[in-house]
Amino acid sequence: MEFEPVIGLEVHVELKTQTKMFCRCLNNSLETIPNKNICEVCLGYPGVLPTINKKAIEGVLMVGLALNGKIPEYSKFDRKNYFYPDLPKGYQISQYDMPFIKGGALPLFLSSDQEEKKVTIMRIHLEEDTGKLIHGLVQEKAVSLIDFNRAGVPLMELVTEPVISSGKEARLFSQGLQVLLRALEVSEADMEKGQMRCEVNISLRPRGEKNFGTKVEIKNLNSFRAVEKSIDFEIKRQTGILSKGEKVVQETRGWDDAKEITFSQRIKEEAEDYRYFPEPDLPPIHLYSEEEGGGLFDLEELKKRLPELPWEKKKRLIKEYKIPSEGANLLVQEEKILKFFEETISCFEAFDLNAKEKAVSLTYNYLISDILGIKEKEGFLWENLKITPLYFSRLINYLVQDKISSRAAKDILLEIVKNGGDPERIIKERNLEKVSDQSVLLPMIEEVVKNNPKALGDYKKGKAGAIQFLVGQVMGKTRGAADPKVLEEIIKNKLKD
Fold first, then answer.
1. Do 225 and 154 reside in the same domain of the chain?
2. Buried-most residue among 148, 284, 369, 399 (CB within 10 A)?
């Protein structure tokens, strides 16, 4: 029997606000001193009252608008009751039946073969984050310590419909969501820092059947690789169980990144009862009104603030600049690199270019292969690169006009990426403009031919590669400044003599 997976994701995202969700403590994910950003409110002291962070709600609404979700006129917070050491109040302020966003969809725009497929959203709600448990040894005794700096940080939870069919789709969705969150500037969504955390709900059923199978939850996935690999493993594990005629146990499982396996954490026979009820310390929220001046937000104004959405940006890059889908993916994921690319292209307006399309193509190719290659090899951060869009455009202009060779361009690029500088000055100082004057090149060619009798012999035996060897030797003498096409023609004529 063939089985098909049914997969849904729950994604938790820490929002980028100055203060926490219900108090004035700083929201600082980089704080290293434990329990520094805490107060009576986020620690749940008796008698204290929370206040709502409007900026956090605005962030959720921006995400909802970008995903074309439905925003209710009224909403509320609810109290979710459960007990855990890192939950200081003994309950969590969350949302139950009236989330800020219902519905919506995110296209898998980072895919190379199914860009138009959309993952539909069930809901997006807002809650407060928990503290952080730290397990270790103190004086050779095992201890668990609690850092409450994270407690009370605004936490957006997005829940998809169970429409994802593979680990790859889940990864593409998660990566696409991260790009969107950064474009909207509502979260850094750095998985390594815990600012974005994924949970997977997965079951298998006979292909074509409508009823769901037994659901297994995979908790606390902190990388895109873990999202994809854990699903792939769980599909194989559950397929093996069902193929034997056995039943999958409803449970919560973890992910062992080193072994690349899921493991059981706790059995979950029935859904937990959180005893939700409306949060008594917070009023219902009037989000907006069709009438002017009503509600906390003007939705039309928020819509105007939406930037170019990543999937729209990708289509524009492909159409406008004729770059491949994979390259467009890289650019939409790296806003700083995209900005550099487009600023370089805008600099071409100052040049008398008859071949702008060629200039754009060269800009893309040298950026992706050379500049990013140097960055990776040298271990630089993008901010450390000394090259500017203006100087990069000048270098590309020399290439378009065929005034320098590609070899010279690569040498110049290495110099200005690491140390900065104007390529025009470097070209003039080092005499790197292409040399095509036969009177200048002929003496060098004669010397190279004289010193390489084997290459001469190979050429006379019909080995065409010998010409390229000789061209390379002369190019070395001119430090890449000779025109290789002119060189090849002169050498061929010389060898006929």
1. yes
2. 148
The answer to whether position 489 is within a domain reads yes
Amino acid letter for position 449: V
- Position 497 scores a pLDDT of 62
* Same-domain check for residues 368 and 452: no
Residue 74: inside a domain = yes
Backbone torsions φ then ψ of 329, nearest 5 degrees: -60, -45
Within 10 angstroms of residue 489's Cβ, the number of other Cβ atoms is 13
Are 423 and 469 found together in one domain? Answer: no
146-159: average pLDDT: 97
- Which tokens is 73 given? 């006129």
pLDDT confidence of 272, banded at 50, 70, 90? low
Percent of the chain residues topping a pLDDT of 70: 94
Structure tokens at 61: 């609404």
Structural domain containing residue 479: 438-496
Same domain, 421 and 449: no
Dihedral pair phi/psi, residue 121, rounded to 5°:
-100, 135
Number of domains in the chain: 3
Q: Tell me the C-alpha to C-alpha distance, in Å, between residue 85 and each of 31, 132, 205.
A: 21, 9, 37
Cβ-contact 15, 26 below 8 angstroms: no
In the chain, what's the furthest Cα-to-Cα distance?
102
**Confidence band of 472 (pLDDT split at 50, 70, 90):** confident
